[in-house]
Specification:
With 382 residues, the protein is α/β, with parallel strands linked by helices. The chain has 2 domains: 157 residues, FAD/NAD(P)-binding domain (3-Layer(bba) Sandwich), CATH 3.50.50; 144 residues, D-Amino Acid Oxidase, subunit A, domain 2 (D-Amino Acid Oxidase, Chain A, domain 2), CATH 3.30.9.10. Helix 2 packs across helix 3.
């Protein structure tokens, strides 16, 4: 979303100064604010719309270990040490959400395994290799060759790699828990301002909204897919990608895991009340889905309808359709970096490539550690 010249106040009023400003009130921004406040800093969070407006409240609610792609393939692409770090971070991410924010108390929380499903022998062999490598690197997993829930009965996978200690949740519940915990723990150190669109930075690197200048020592930009609007150079590395989803009801359906199919292209899970959450098919119309728009499209939603009927093999009643915008990095790894294109101490944290639920909180913690010590990211930045 671009910002018109007319919204940029020539003489903004000065807001109450703070030690740090976090731009974006999603999972990453809220966790980063907590980390900063824990270190004794005063923090102002500026959110262009409302709490969790972007992908943080629009995703499918998977809290999985690792990423949707196989461990073997990620080791090949990133190197084994880096892939192992991603998997370890995702475990630490879920532990952080459970321990600090007590998300297991939320009604929508489900302690349910995630399952990466192979439909071909070549992908099955890749999962077997992944399982061996995961066990060698100290990660618990199992291989499943049969099952009796709806997906196994109808789709008949070759094999599945199961992460047994994963979870699922209503992401809107999660975002509110992050906010409530933050404000309860640090009521005197944190200010959250919604509907406060940052238009640009002043010559000293202070963020400006239409009406106010926010004086601070440090800025952390957590806008993910919209990074290029404030950081044209660094943010240009982040490519917006839309993910479309739907919620449906289908009689007699049971899903015993949160499933990823077709190398993570499609994903499906069931909530406590039996509702089915299904998303993906993005690779069918990949170019069209490389957009920051959160509007659904008839073509892709029709593809999701057809896929749901194929997997569930029954009549379906769609009760909601929506989309969320993800920020993809060039490497598929999170980006933590100082934005040297502006004066001041401005940093960026994002590029979670569709895995903000699994990596967002842990990446935010690492970003604050990097900012405080002025040290580089543990992941390479292209």
């Amino acid at each position: 979303m671009s910002i018109s010249h007319w919204k940029r106040s020539p003489v903004p009023m000065r807001a109450e100064p703070s030690d740090a400003v976090v731009i974006g009130a999603g999972i990453t921004g809220l966790t980063a604010a907590y980390e900063l406040a824990e270190r004794g800093l005063s923090v102002t969070i500026l959110e262009r719309h409302t709490l969790g407006w972007g992908a943080s409240s629009r995703n499918a609610g998977f809290l999985m270990r690792g990423v949707a792609e196989s461990y073997a393939r990620c080791c090949h692409e990133f190197g084994r040490e880096t892939a192992s770090r991603v998997w370890r971070w995702s475990e630490e991410n879920l532990a952080l959400l459970r321990d600090r924010y007590s998300i297991t108390d939320l009604d929508s929380y489900q302690a349910i395994p995630s399952s990466i499903v192979a439909m071909s022998e070549s992908e099955a062999e890749e999962l077997r290799t992944s399982a061996n490598m995961l066990e060698e690197d100290g990660f618990e997993c199992t291989l499943q060759t049969s099952g009796d829930d709806t997906l196994w009965t109808n789709v008949k996978p070759e094999i599945a790699l199961v992460n047994p200690n994963d979870a699922a949740i209503n992401p809107w519940d999660l975002v509110n828990r992050l906010k409530d915990s933050l404000m309860r723990a640090h009521p005197d150190k944190v200010t959250l301002i919604e509907n406060a669109e940052v238009t640009h930075f002043d010559p000293n690197g202070h963020p400006l909204t239409r009406s106010h200048a926010f004086l601070c020592k440090t800025v952390l930009v957590c806008t993910n897919a919209w990074a290029s609007e404030l950081l044209p150079s660094l943010g240009a590395q982040i490519e917006p990608n839309r993910g479309q989803m739907l919620a449906l009801r289908a009689k007699g359906v049971t899903l015993d895991a949160s499933y990823y199919l077709n190398r993570g292209s499609e994903y499906i899970r069931q909530t406590h009340d039996g509702t089915i959450i299904l998303g993906g098919m993005r690779t069918l119309r990949e170019t069209e889905e490389q957009t920051a728009s959160d509007a659904t499209t008839h073509a892709l939603q029709s593809a999701l309808d057809g896929y749901a009927r194929k997997v569930l093999n029954t009549e379906i009643e769609v009760i909601a359709r929506w989309a969320g915008t993800m920020g993809f990095s060039p490497t598929g790894l999170p980006i933590i970096a100082k934005a040297n294109e502006h004066p001041g101490n401005i940093w960026f944290c994002g590029g979670l490539t569709g895995h903000g639920m699994s990596l967002g909180a842990r990446t935010a913690k690492a970003a604050v550690e990097s900012m405080q010590a002025n040290k580089p990211s543990p992941f390479p930045v292209s």
